[in-house]
Design goal:
alpha/beta, TIM Barrel, eight-stranded parallel barrel, globular, binds phosphoenolpyruvate, binds magnesium ion, EC 2.7.3.9, metal-binding, PTS_EIN, kinase
Length: about 575
């Protein structure tokens, strides 16, 4: 049994599918028979084309035309004589092997494209690199894994899964996944919860311990992975799986109830989503709104920026689905573990502390303005709230809001309708903002606390790094004091406070958050009904009476003990 971090509830039992990037190193060779090498190259190109066509078709069916386009771009490269002829010429003229000719030729194209003063051409560089890897794998006769092509029930085993790998996983076949690295709040873990795929992350060793085809059990509740289980173990976990399903049926009975505490105080339970389709999940799980729509996923899994029209359609779709329930849309929060290869931003030493989110948007105003226009145009189709991510200073908020107001005016001048009740708020995820929440509260309409980042910045413990995960402590008194400061500051100005970090759905944290006065809890859709069940059993008045005790404790352990003791 391998222990890791429980990332997404449920139990899965299936064959292992190893998702590993193959070793693509090769030795440069001189050759005698260029025609033989050219034949090898042509075969590799043909296999790559075949695969790309299948992937394109699969993506078109599962994710739509727009996402399939990237593969059409890849296919064009493989058919482009300006790319392929120089590779063949190099084999013939320099008498080198196909691997060397492919690598050196494509590298020189990548270098040229990367340095062009044109975003479109820079995007082509990333495409060339992607297809080259696939062709190279076929030349070297190593397997190139394609998560999108999985067509039998498996558990995906990987060192790490990027958010875009995770987005490609097909829920019908992928029963669960387990990774070496990552934490509960890394974005692949968050996505596994929205896809409702049981997952264990941060095991440090699962890729070493599991071979392709081994039978694997993933227990996403306990955070365990069992490799090649005995029949007895399989029976035990099948029972656990059935218990979990029964429990879900119990929770489902509260789907249409409002969220009231035992002493009749109301709180709002909203959900976090990454795609418009997930809005259906929110309603299915009884969500009272969307507390965080992470729009960056609209920008991922493709090879260029989404247009204003594409964004408008996506926002309108979510707003219409949610009807009069509020939808908090967060503007682009790119950076950290969410990369956009086509923007070709320079690598940074500390991406989580780097050029990301609102910092990027204020410097790339045309990208930001396009998003704001799409949002404003969609605003009349539902109940929209706009939220800026990673706000560290008041100036950032003022600048972002000024741009929003300018775009609103521009649209009105063009004769477009814009809703007149859009609240504008910020994520509180940087300690500087939490500390001076009082000053911010005078200017914003609401706060949503992003504990995923706030904890990593307060504790100086990378949320993705399993080696420091022991320091990533949601219940640390420093965190509780920051939360309390933000909530009190907002309430003093008559503003509401939500939380859209993963802590909002955490059963140990919920009693404390209720006591600190949090108004809105936004979580993975699947956490809503268990949270509602729990909150109906808690008295807000009693929890509030524990506030001073909680804030004056010395360690996270003491906080956990105290909460357990008071809620058992
Ligand atoms: C909700 C948050 O944003 P993200 O997880 O997307 O960084 C957060 O930081 O808590
Ligand atoms: Mg964040």
């Amino acid at each position: 049994m391998i222990e890791g971090i429980a990332a997404s509830n449920g139990v899965a039992i299936a064959k292992a599918y190893e998702l590993v990037t193959p070793d693509l190193t090769y030795e440069k060779r001189s050759i005698n028979d260029p025609s033989e090498e050219i034949k090898r190259l042509e075969n590799a190109l043909a296999t790559a084309k075949d695969e790309l066509e299948k992937i394109r078709e699969h993506t078109r069916q599962t994710m739509g035309e727009e996402h399939a386009e990237i593969f059409s771009a890849h296919l064009l490269i493989l058919d482009d004589p300006e790319m392929i002829t120089p590779i063949k010429d190099k084999i013939t003229n320099e008498q080198v092997d196909a691997e060397t000719a492919l690598d050196e030729t494509t590298n020189s194209f990548v270098e040229i494209f990367k340095n062009m003063d044109n975003a479109y051409m820079r995007e082509r560089a990333a495409d060339i690199q992607d297809v080259t890897k696939r062709v190279m794998a076929h030349l070297l006769e190593v397997t190139f894994p394609d998560p999108a092509l999985i067509d039998e029930e498996v558990i995906v085993i990987a060192s790490d899964l990027t958010p875009s790998d995770t987005a490609q996983l097909n829920r019908k076949f992928v029963q669960g996944f387990a990774t070496d690295v990552g934490g509960r709040t890394s974005h692949s873990a968050i996505m596994s919860r929205s896809l409702e795929i049981p997952a264990v992350v941060g095991t440090k060793e699962v890729t070493g311990a599991v071979k392709q085809g081994d039978i694997v059990i993933v227990d996403g509740m306990a955070g365990n992975v069992i490799v090649n289980p005995t029949d007895e173990e399989i029976d035990t976990y099948k029972k656990k799986q059935a218990d979990f399903e029964r429990q879900q049926e119990e929770w489902a009975k509260l789907k249409n109830e409002s969220t009231l505490t035992a002493d009749n105080q109301q709180v709002d339970l909203a959900a976090n989503i990454g795609t418009p389709e997930e809005a259906d999940n929110v309603l299915e799980h009884g969500g009272e709104g969307v507390g965080l729509y992470r729009t960056e996923f609209l920008y991922m899994g493709k090879n260029q920026l989404p247009t204003e029209e594409e964004q408008y359609e996506a926002y309108k779709d979510v707003l219409e689905k949610m009807g009069d329930k509020p939808v908090v849309v967060r503007t682009l929060d790119i950076g950290g573990d969410k990369e956009l290869s086509y923007l070709d931003l320079p690598e940074e030493m500390n991406p989580f502390l780097g050029f990301r989110a609102i910092r990027f948007c204020l410097e790339n105003q045309s990208i930001f303005r396009t998003q704001l226009r799409a949002l404003l145009r969609a605003s009349s189709y539902g109940h929209l709230r706009i939220m800026f991510p990673m706000i560290a200073t008041l100036e950032e908020f003022r600048d972002a809001k000024a741009i929003l107001l300018e775009e609103e005016q521009n649209l009105k001048d063009e004769g477009q309708t814009v809703a007149d009740d859009i609240e504008v708020g910020i994520m509180v995820e940087i300690p500087s903002t939490a500390v001076i929440a009082k000053q911010f509260a005078k200017e914003v309409d609401f706060f949503s606390i992003g504990t995923n980042d706030m904890i990593q910045y307060t504790m100086a413990a990378d949320r993705m790094n399993e080696r420091v995960s022991y320091l990533y402590q949601p219940y640390h008194p420093a965190i509780l004091n920051l939360l309390s400061n933000v909530i009190d500051a907002a309430h003093a100005e008559g503003k509401w406070v939500g939380m859209c970090g993963e802590m909002a759905g955490d059963a140990t944290a919920i009693p404390a958050l209720l006591g600190l006065g949090l108004d809105e809890f936004s979580m993975s859709p699947t956490s809503i009904l268990p949270a509602r069940t729990q909150i109906r059993g808690l008295s807000k008045e009693t929890m509030t009476s524990y506030k001073d005790n909680l804030l004056s404790m010395g360690t996270a352990e003491e906080v956990i003990e105290f909460i357990k003791d008071k809620t058992e």
